[in-house]
Design a protein that fits this description.
15% of the residues lie in helices and 45% in strands. By secondary structure, it is mainly β. The strands form 3 sheets. It has an 8-stranded mixed sheet. It has a 7-stranded mixed sheet with strand order 2-1-5-8-11-13-14, with no helix packed on it. The radius of gyration is 19 Å and the shape is globular. The relative contact order is 0.14. The longest helix has 16 residues, at 212-227. Residues 39-46 have low confidence and may be disordered. The protein has helices spanning 191-194, 212-227, 261-271, 276-279, 281-288, and strands at residues 6-14, 17-24, 28-31, 49-57, 67-74, 78-83, 88-90, 102-110, 115-118, 123-125, 130-139, 144-152, 166-175, 178-188, 200-207, 238-246, 249-258. The protein has one domain (6-288).
Length: 290
């Protein structure tokens, strides 16, 4: 019997075609639309075969006490794009379950000569919500990763800003079982007093040979904007870049914050536009129009 809230995605290339196996159990739902193949900017023979999966919830969000667990494996020759449809809503904690919290965990396996892109919409915690999430990535040398972890201040249409009880997110990346990145963000208690002028935070990881040029581009862009700030087209987005130097993988991490969620979303998509020739027009369109 499937475990409630657990899902699996397995993406592999067989005889030049993509084969994706997906399973999920209520309240989790995973769907996999077909994506057309990309043509590599370097050589058609080295192009990765694209695949897309949407991670959804039957209830429209994560209810208090939910425990969502997703396993995803990307095998050589594949590029898997993981998306959501709309923000991940985390509903408020009920008075009858004061010790309860919501959890979402992702275990991600990235093989050599493969690419995993995790590009969800932001997490939005409702007033009184208590939410924990963890993304654990195990990469092999030669694999590539783009992982976005971001959140909003709450249901601003209801006047809720930083009124959740707890938001805790952890990202761990290992390459050939050696720790490369560990990052954690904990927001709780009187967070509204300190973040009154901001409405969205983002943390972006870009690692590996398939996306090395995107990392280099962002590093240069950040350096240019520090020298000539007026050249930035998104002045309200504050961002920084940190190089990741590991003996098995090279890349960057990016932190960004903004007082407008939509503007931050546009900024993120504009920075990731060079992904289009890697994952193909079909998969890119699903992300761009999501």
């Amino acid at each position: 019997m499937p475990v409630a809230g657990e899902g699996r995605i397995d993406c592999r290339a067989i005889a030049g075609r993509i084969h994706q196996t997906v399973s999920s159990a209520y309240p989790l739902k995973i769907i996999s639309p077909q994506a057309s193949a990309a043509v590599s900017a370097v050589s058609e023979t080295t192009a990765l075969l694209p695949s897309v999966a949407f991670i959804l919830s039957y209830g429209g969000g994560i209810v208090h006490g939910d425990r969502i667990l997703v396993h995803a494996s990307v095998h050589p020759g594949c590029a898997l794009l993981l998306l959501t449809q709309g923000s991940t809503k985390v509903f408020r904690q009920r008075n009858s379950a004061k010790g309860d919290q919501s959890y979402q965990t992702m275990h991600l396996q990235v093989a050599s000569n493969s690419l995993l892109c995790v590009l969800p919409d932001p997490v939005t915690c409702f007033k009184g919500a208590r939410y924990n999430q963890r993304q654990a990535v195990n990469m092999h040398r030669g694999g590539s990763l783009v992982l976005l972890d971001w959140m909003t201040s709450g249901r601003m249409s209801r006047g809720e800003r930083w009124e959740f009880q707890k938001y805790f997110s952890v990202n761990v990346v290992r390459v050939d079982e050696e720790l490369a990145i560990r990052d954690a963000l904990l927001l709780e208690d009187r967070v509204a007093e300190k973040l009154a002028n901001l409405d969205a935070f983002a943390y972006l990881i870009i690692l590996g040979p398939a996306v090395e040029f995107i990392a280099s581009r962002l590093l240069k862009k950040h350096q240019d904007e520090r020298i000539r700030p007026s050249r930035s087209t998104h002045l309200s987005v504050k961002w920084s870049v940190s190089p990741v130097s590991h003996k098995q993988v090279q890349g960057i991490t990016v932190r960004a914050a903004c007082d407008n969620t939509d503007e931050l979303k546009l900024w993120i998509k504009s920075q990731l536009e060079p992904l289009q020739p890697i994952i193909g027009d079909s998969a890119w369109s699903m992300y761009l129009n999501n």
